[in-house]
Write a structure and sequence with these properties.
Layout (H helix, E strand, L loop, with lengths): L1 E4 L1 H6 L3 E9 L8 H21 L10 H9 L10 H10 L9 H13 L6 E2 L17 E6 L5 E2 L17 E5 L2 E5 L4 E2 L11 E9 L4 H18 L1 E2 L2 E2 L1 E7 L5 E3 L1
Parallel strand pairs: 1-4, 5-7
Antiparallel strand pairs: 1-13, 2-9, 2-12, 3-9, 4-6, 6-7, 7-8, 10-11
């Protein structure tokens, strides 16, 4: 399996870097109180941070580089905020952070800790370019400009209720199934993490000259937490991790 960023994306964002963590073989149906507690603690820390600084999420120093990157990709950040901004804006406005399931909670907790956009994609739903082979070894996830063949099922919608992203829009996509529109703006119903998910790909989006240390620290947290809290049938999960950048655009696991 693989995760890959296209050359067209790196042409617009040469400093784009992604920490990729793939976790395979865990039981996401069991509650993990330690992860739920960590999510609550990190959400409270973010709430206090905005209360003390008086910043708005869109003007925060951690968020501004992502807004600039969205503009470089031809996306209006005032209409389509990146995942980290949306998450922190919700908390800054006092709306809290609900627990969903352990795999999602872990991603959100680490995202809040480092103020980084972090996705969570069900590896078992990845497909080949022709739409076949769901969850098989030669399937993967790409970040690339959308094509007319690509389709997107909005979160919460029926699989028959899909639309087509704008051609050239930067998307997370497996085959022609778009998993996230406008870079990290909105997730699809296809590939969402459920209690039946047994393998997750976490992409941690950052910039080589701005927050690479935070990206690497977030990767280490994933590796540590997965080792502590996730297993299936008494066996520890398998974790693969790597860095994707313009010189190394593809990560295989």
């Amino acid at each position: 399996m693989f995760y890959e960023v296209s050359k067209e994306v790196f042409e617009k964002l040469p400093n784009f870097v992604v920490g990729v963590v793939a976790v395979e073989g865990f039981d996401n149906s069991k509650e993990v109180p330690a992860i739920a507690d960590m999510l609550e603690e990190n959400a409270e820390a973010v709430r206090k941070y905005f209360e003390e600084t008086g910043n708005k999420a869109k003007n925060d120093p951690f968020v501004v580089p992502y807004r600039e990157a969205l503009r470089a990709l031809g996306i209006n950040p005032n209409r389509y905020a990146c995942a980290a901004e949306a998450l922190m804006d919700r908390i800054a406005k006092g709306k809290g952070m609900p627990s969903i399931n352990p795999a999602v909670d872990l991603g959100n907790a680490i995202s809040l800790k480092y103020k980084l956009p972090i996705g969570a994609h069900d590896i078992g739903t990845f497909v080949r370019a022709d739409g076949t082979g769901r969850g098989e070894e030669d399937t993967g996830l790409e970040v690339r400009p959308a094509t007319p063949k690509d389709t997107f099922v909005p979160f919460g919608a029926d699989e028959n209720e899909f639309d087509n992203p704008e051609e050239g829009e930067v998307v997370y996509v497996s085959g022609n199934e778009v998993r996230t529109r406008r870079w990290t703006w909105r997730q699809s119903e296809v590939g969402k993490i459920t209690e039946n998910t047994t393998a997750v790909l976490y992409p941690i989006d950052g910039f080589s000259d701005l927050n690479l240390n935070e990206v690497k620290a977030a990767m280490e947290d994933f590796i540590d937490m997965v080792g502590k809290y996730f297993e299936a049938d008494g066996k520890a999960s398998i974790v693969s991790a790597g860095i994707v950048d313009k010189d190394n655009p593809r990560f295989e696991f």
